[in-house]
Design brief:
The structure holds three protein chains of three kinds. Chain A is α/β, with parallel strands linked by helices. Chain A contains 19 helices and ten strands. Chain A has two domains: 187 residues, D-Maltodextrin-Binding Protein, domain 2, CATH 3.40.190; 210 residues, Periplasmic binding protein-like II (D-Maltodextrin-Binding Protein, domain 2, 3-Layer(aba) Sandwich). The radius of gyration of chain A is 22 Å and the shape is globular. By secondary structure, chain C is mainly α. Chain C has a two-stranded antiparallel ribbon. Classes of the chains: A alpha/beta, B mainly alpha, C mainly alpha.
Chain lengths: 436, 276, 288
């Protein structure tokens, strides 16, 4: 867009805003969001929303951990500092149950809420009512270097097993040239390494709690999971993997230092973007691995927009939700940045769109999302909902401490047995405190 | 024998001092340099020191993403406001402690300092609830009050130590000449204590500027200072060293410059009564 | 001498500061005490009733409690030791005649102006990252395996970062003290043939006693509550969980305000124990 074009569209927007303000009041919305690439892009396109509705937006963009701490404090004290909050699948059902969120059951026909992928709508609903609208959704999958795989003389199956992953990782590793066969999250935090190891443990037949909410870290599947992970990473992982999270691994992969990376499906658009990635044209995709037990190690997550109950700007907030998570926003991004950069994983129609079907990672993303079942995440039955988390209020705190014990194993500070013993003890203690 | 310093000795001193000084300063220098590199150069191995294609791109990106001036302005108002308010409240208190001491003066001083040891995170919920009740959440006024209270003990302590060094006889003399209490403080005491007050002001401005817990947790969009600005750059997706460096440089540059210009005042007064 | 009138005037002038700080201390303290006896779980709908001493017992009986006290003391002690030892050395050095003293002083005090969050971010990413960090490049250049700072030497790394931030403060206060050293006395000792280390030990160090006390006092107050440096770098993992951080985890991560408040009360007790120690020393030193 030329400068004058931009100017005139701004002027038009201004006129539209003025004419609108006589009819409907124009509001200023304060929106808390996470500093992920897709949200930053949305921030840059705010002008379009203002032009269309007359409402203005104040962004509070924070790093994920700070954001969680900030919005949780605000919502549980009914502080009212934000009109919209960016939250995930973990928070939504818990907050909705407490009556903290405005139900999103009256969005316009034009918005077409039925178009939201059922897996996402499911995870963002409580008692059958949608409480948060997905901005983008993700599962996890394998991203691998096709060139290195070929060099190792191997072919990646569409749905590999963990044993194959280990074999391939070791074959691809070339430490002298700083190529690590596999990069995986090891960073402490329930949403970082905790999420990965929990999803992985599902494929090993492990679970967090049995049907009576008794913690299960003293069972064999957990020991198997951790031992396999530690062996794999020590043989084929990057140095310092105990502190690597999503961002660290992303930048390693973009620099060509990873043979494989199992992580969020949204990363696919970053690793295939030639502006940021040195390996953009050499990336293949496959389903997250399994162990033949019937569960794969992929998770399900969505970043979604929710409205705190009690806000005075509910109507305007809903308008924003319809703008940001509707189909026209996807078209807007596609027009400006190309189809590969639209927020993925939220809408069925996106995956039916022929333009999007030609994006290399579209199919694998959808297959991964469809293969995740939060209501039935483990081999043995569990009392909770959620794949890489258990949707109970205590989980975030417990899982962060548990993952800190695991990270200490990755750093070589304690053994797998010690960590599991501590995890079992601290989880038991916290569950007792919560009255289970 | 007078202490003559040989040129040799001076040279060695200079060399050692400069090496250490540069070593201590290096992390800041490196951050500033990195902010002018591209993301690829920022992580290149071997690292490039000065000979790279200097670019302002990172600053442009950061500026496009966040309204730096507003964060900066909030930081200035909050740090400045809390410092000035703190001084207004602390000067009379420190005066009375220094010139009309009672048996309890020292206890009160130490008690004041001990209020600073309360772990902030433990009282986040109580304070947050109070802020909601008073309707001062995400306001600069609210933060000015909180930061003033946090730093008040330090201000009182610093002022007390300066005032104590002023000989009481001068005040006696002024009083004999018929100066009122107000005159005494305004025209006699304050001018004598200017270096001390200046240094108190500076130190507390710095402390308030850098306070990162309350300023982050009690603000949303309107009152958010630079500490909140930096929280949105801490770990974005992909390569980010150069952008992080640019944002960091923008966050610390104003206070660094202020500090350098006023370092004489700061240093002269920063004794906390350490020298008698 | 102070008259009755000036005494009451003095009280009046002290009143605002005292009342404000009393309020700032008491209101949150009373609320913390109240919460600490309640089952207060924001995620489960808030105040769930009386908890008795449960929160207090649970907080200390947790396996993280004693290690967190230990970590707190190690960090405070470590930073104090480093800043004072290097602070004295730097102060003595800066007191020597040299070229460009002003510039060197500016370089040395610069870290004090850097926000803790910024300093933690910069150290963590740009310097200590085991792959792309500058230290990793340096280690590789010398053919060594890069150190994984924040996992393998986590506590040392945090102590280093915090010391870097506080060294300027210690140096400045000690420098003022060094500059006020009686040079005639020094010269006399020099003429008597007292060797350098003896002069330092018997003249300089006693003279610095008061300044060291101040540094210990002020820094301890700030160091007991450091948070950003840990939050950004390790998130409390790898044995870096201080008492403050443990309370943060209880209050904000586990969303158990009652339990966290009980932890807050323990932290206040710890702070007071430290404070009493400090004040004994400071009180003695300040009365001299």
């Amino acid at each position: 867009m030329t400068l004058s074009g931009k100017f005139s569209s701004t002027a038009l927007g201004l006129i539209a805003a003025l004419s609108m303000s006589s009819a409907a009041t124009s509001e200023e919305l304060t929106i808390a969001t996470v500093n992920n690439g897709d949200m930053i892009r949305m921030q840059g396109l705010t002008e379009d929303f203002t032009e269309k509705t007359g409402h203005t937006v104040e962004w509070v963009t924070l790093e994920e951990n700070v954001l969680r701490q900030r919005v949780t404090t605000d919502i549980s004290t009914k502080g009212g500092a934000f009109d919209l909050m960016t939250i995930g699948m973990y928070e939504t059902p818990i907050w909705a149950k407490n009556g903290w969120l405005v139900p999103l059951d009256d969005l316009s026909d034009e918005y077409n809420a039925d178009d939201i992928l059922p897996a996402m709508a499911n995870g963002l609903s409580y008692d059958g009512t949608l409480y948060a609208a997905p901005f983008y959704g993700e599962s996890s999958m394998i991203m691998y270097r096709t060139d290195l795989m070929e060099k190792a003389g191997l072919t990646m199956p569409e749905a590999p097993t963990w044993d194959f992953i280990k074999e391939a990782a070791i074959a691809m590793t070339d430490r002298d040239n700083e190529i690590n066969g596999i990069c995986l999250r090891g960073k402490a935090g329930w949403g970082e390494g905790g999420a990965f190891i929990t999803a992985m443990s599902n494929s090993f037949g492990a679970r967090w709690f049995d049907e009576n909410w008794k913690p299960q870290f003293d069972t064999q599947p957990w020991a198997d999971t951790l031992n396999f992970y530690v062996d794999l990473m020590n043989e084929a992982g990057p140095p310092g993997y105990a502190t690597n999270g999503f961002n660290e691994n992303l930048s390693l992969f973009q620099q060509g230092k990873c043979g494989m990376w199992i992580d969020a499906t949204v990363a696919a658009s970053f690793v295939t973007n030639p502006n940021d990635s040195t390996v953009a044209d050499k990336v293949g995709f496959a389903l997250a691995p399994d162990n033949g037990l019937g569960k794969r190690s992929n998770w399900l997550w969505a970043w979604a927009l929710a409205i705190p109950a009690g806000t005075e700007k509910e109507a305007a907030a809903k308008e924003f939700i319809e703008w940001a998570t509707g189909t026209s926003y996807i078209e807007l991004v596609a027009e400006k940045e190309g189809w590969a950069n639209v927020p993925p994983g939220a809408r069925t129609s996106l995956y039916e769109n022929p333009n999007y079907q030609s994006v290399p990672f579209a199919k694998m993303t959808l297959d991964s999302i469809l293969s995740a079942d939060p209501n039935n995440p483990t081999v043995d039955p569990v009392p909770y909902v959620g794949i890489q988390f258990a949707a109970i209020p205590e989980f975030a705190g417990i899982a962060t401490e548990v993952s800190q014990e695991f990270s200490a194993v990755y750093a070589g500070q304690q053994t797998v047995e010690e960590a599991l013993e501590k995890a079992q003890a601290l989880t038991t203690d916290a569950m007792e405190a919560a009255g289970y | 024998m007078a202490r003559t310093v040989t040129t040799n000795r001076k040279l060695i001193n200079t060399l050692i001092a400069w090496t250490i000084g540069l070593l201590i300063f290096f992390p800041i220098l490196w951050t500033i340099l990195t902010s002018f590199k591209t993301e690829a150069q920022a992580i290149s191995d071997p690292p490039v020191f000065l000979f790279f294609d200097w670019t302002l791109e990172n600053y442009a990106v950061v500026q496009e993403r966040s309204n730096y001036m507003r964060f900066l302005w909030n930081s200035i108002i909050i740090a400045g406001g809390s410092t000035v308010l703190g001084l207004i409240i602390a000067v009379p208190a420190a005066w009375s402690m220094a010139f009309v001491p009672s048996k309890r003066t020292k206890d009160i001083l130490l008690w004041m300092l001990s209020t600073k040891m309360l772990p902030a995170v433990g009282v986040l919920y109580p304070i947050y609830l109070i802020f909601i009740q008073l309707g001062i959440l995400d306001t600069r006024a609210g933060l000015v009050i909180v930061l003033m209270l946090i730093n008040l003990p330090i201000i009182v302590w610093m002022l007390y130590t300066y005032f104590k060094e002023i000989p009481g006889e001068i005040l006696e003399a002024a009083r004999m000449d018929g100066a009122s209490l107000k005159d005494e403080i305004l025209y006699v005491l304050t001018p004598m204590a200017v270096p001390g007050i200046a240094s108190t002001l500076l130190l507390n401005f710095i402390l308030a500027w850098n306070e990162a817990f309350w300023t982050l947790n009690l603000t949303a969009a309107k009152a958010a200072p630079l500490t909140a600005f930096i929280a949105s750059y801490s770990s974005p997706e992909g390569l980010f060293y150069a952008k992080l460096s640019a944002a960091s440089t923008m966050a610390i540059a104003p206070i660094l410059v202020l500090g350098w210009f006023s370092q004489k005042q700061l240093v002269r007064g920063l004794t906390f009564g350490a020298v008698k | 001498m102070a008259t009755q009138q000036s005494r009451s005037a003095a009280r009046l002038m002290m009143a605002p500061a005292v009342i404000l700080l009393l309020g700032w201390m008491l209101v949150p303290l009373i609320m913390t005490l109240w919460f600490s006896f309640r089952v207060y779980l924001p995620m489960r709908g808030g105040d769930q009733g009386w908890a008795g001493l449960d929160n207090y017992i649970r907080f200390v009986s947790s396996s993280s409690f004693w290690p967190s006290i230990q970590v707190t003391l190690i960090i405070v002690g470590g930073v104090l030791a480093i800043t004072i030892v290097f602070g004295i050395m730097l102060a003595l050095l800066l007191d020597q005649p040299m070229w460009g003293q002003g510039i060197v002083r500016i370089l040395v005090i610069a870290p004090f102006f850097v926000m803790p969050t910024v300093s933690a971010l910069v150290w963590k990413n740009i310097f200590m990252d085991p792959v792309n960090g500058l230290f990793a490049h340096l280690w590789k250049f010398f053919g060594a395996t890069p150190v994984e700072w924040l996992s393998q030497a986590s506590l040392q790394s945090i102590i280093m970062i915090v010391s870097w931030q506080w060294l300027p403060f210690a140096t400045l206060i000690l420098l003022t003290a060094v500059q006020s050293l009686d040079s005639e006395q020094m010269e006399a000792a020099e003429m008597d043939g007292a060797p350098v280390h003896k002069r330092f030990w018997f003249l300089t160090l006693p003279h610095l006693g008061r300044a060291i006390t101040i540094v210990v006092l002020i820094q301890t107050i700030f160091l007991l509550s450091i948070f950003a440096e840990i939050f950004v770098t390790t998130g409390g993992a790898f044995g870096t969980r201080t008492l403050t951080y443990l309370i943060f985890q209880r209050v904000l991560e586990s969303q158990n305000v009652g339990l966290g408040s009980a932890g807050g009360v323990y932290a206040i007790i710890l702070a007071n124990i430290v404070a009493i120690f400090l004040m004994r020393i400071v009180g003695k030193n300040l009365d001299k």
